[in-house]
Amino acid sequence: MTGGYSLLVADLIGVAVFAASGAGAAVAKRLDLFGVGFVGFVAALGGGLLRDLVIDAVPPLAFGDWRYAVTAVCASVAVFYLHPQLNRLRRTVLLLDAAGLGLFTVTGTLKALEAGVPAVGACLIGMLTGIGGGVARDLLTGEIPVVLQRDIYAVVALGGAAAVTLLSRLELAGPLPLALSAAAMTGVRLLALYRRWSAPVAVP
Amino acid sequence: MTGGYSLLVADLIGVAVFAASGAGAAVAKRLDLFGVGFVGFVAALGGGLLRDLVIDAVPPLAFGDWRYAVTAVCASVAVFYLHPQLNRLRRTVLLLDAAGLGLFTVTGTLKALEAGVPAVGACLIGMLTGIGGGVARDLLTGEIPVVLQRDIYAVVALGGAAAVTLLSRLELAGPLPLALSAAAMTGVRLLALYRRWSAPVAVP
Amino acid sequence: MTGGYSLLVADLIGVAVFAASGAGAAVAKRLDLFGVGFVGFVAALGGGLLRDLVIDAVPPLAFGDWRYAVTAVCASVAVFYLHPQLNRLRRTVLLLDAAGLGLFTVTGTLKALEAGVPAVGACLIGMLTGIGGGVARDLLTGEIPVVLQRDIYAVVALGGAAAVTLLSRLELAGPLPLALSAAAMTGVRLLALYRRWSAPVAVP
């Protein structure tokens, strides 16, 4: 899980998908081309940036590896020009978004554990890597973060991060178990969407 | 002031109180259970997280010591389920919030000084440790931070941070003077609430 | 470019100008005196703080050199008391703001390159140093960041950061070329204001 070619490709797919979600939100708010690129960049790389700041990885991946930034910007620009067609691809985007959530949570948790963060902290950092970009996207576009309002989303990330931490503690964090963890998060997230599961809201 | 048992207990009380304030705000915005926990976590640990990023304490306490995160989450969940009763406890919460402000400002200022930050910077970091969580809470729930709008709140933190810095420079920063500083901040904050003191607003 | 006296003076002018822009926005939102100072501080020093966190400069300049914080606060307080007169100075403020944008982008890019960040990342960090304070100012006052919505602003910073990176790679980053880069950014920004250039918005 330390940067093989297939992992890089998968990681960049996650970046592209999250960038597309940010760019779509920015287009809906009538931001200009730069604003769309900026919100896409933050949505794709904000979670990882927070993770790298917290574990003191210098420079953060978002600035240290140009492929991440370029992927995020290209995906955002594509959404800017293609967004009418993309609306019809909404189901695909939700699928890819769920895949990105699983992947980012796995890599975030692993990087935190490798940096010596204790178990509970690593779970939190993994979860924040998965959901941080979406929170930043919503703050930039003037919304209360959607991840805090409805749907089973962050809970999936937290559960997945706990599973990865457990695997790592048991020295079972090989490629296959980790891939299965990411796939399980993606599956639960899609099931939650399909079944309209949502977390409880306090009675007034 | 370097992590004795009584300090830890006091610190965790501060965490619980600030988490409760964040969770209360999140419940009022109709966020779900996870959202309430998340806003509570950020309100309780956001100020300290910013402090640790700035002084390069790795990993930040919010992720490095599980007792902080667990305390924040438990307090938030308690507010989620008990909030109708808690409304009646509003006076108690304001008292505890004032106590948390004093304590967090003292520890934030000391940690910055110990990390070699110069005096003016340490005062600012101490103040941000005290008020940062509340600012993050308000941003997440879509409000202009209340600390910027009314009440004597941040000024109390800034004055207290200056007092702690002065004590430290005079080599008088023993447990008793520090406890008195925290208590003085708490007292001034409560007096400001009781007397409805507020900072001036510019004439239009 | 490593801290000569004239650079420090120019840097502090940039801090004062950005602080004034933040304080003006805070006055318009009816924040109190402290809130005005806080928003001014964040607008002036937020971009540099993010830069220093990312390149791991400890403590960040905003906390490590008291002249920065004091300049930001004094400029904010001046705006608080003088803002009716300052409205008439709007053209001057826009001119100074454009100058600050050029200067901050140049120093941010150079610091990132000196810290070993690769070229693409250094461009992004330079741009964020120039625009970060304005983004934070707008988030704190409950607005969608204006830099994302209209005007040629961030694009100027990005282009200037790319020019500085190129100069640095060609070992031509002496005082004169860097000053010309900053001046060019300022000029393009002013021209964009005067001619009302703006970036495209997606068709609905």
TrEMBL record, chains A, B, C:
Taxonomic superkingdom: Bacteria
Keyword DNA repair applies: no
A Gene Ontology term for the protein's cellular component: plasma membrane
InterPro entries, per database record: Gly_transporter
Subcellular compartments: Cell membrane
Keywords annotated in UniProt: Cell membrane, Membrane, Transmembrane, Transmembrane helix
TM segment ranges: 6-26, 33-54, 66-82
UniProt KW Cytoplasm keyword: no
Mode of membrane association: Multi-pass membrane protein
Domain Glycine transporter stretches: 9-83, 95-168
Coiled-coil blocks: none
Name of this protein: Membrane protein
Origin species: Actinoplanes auranticolor
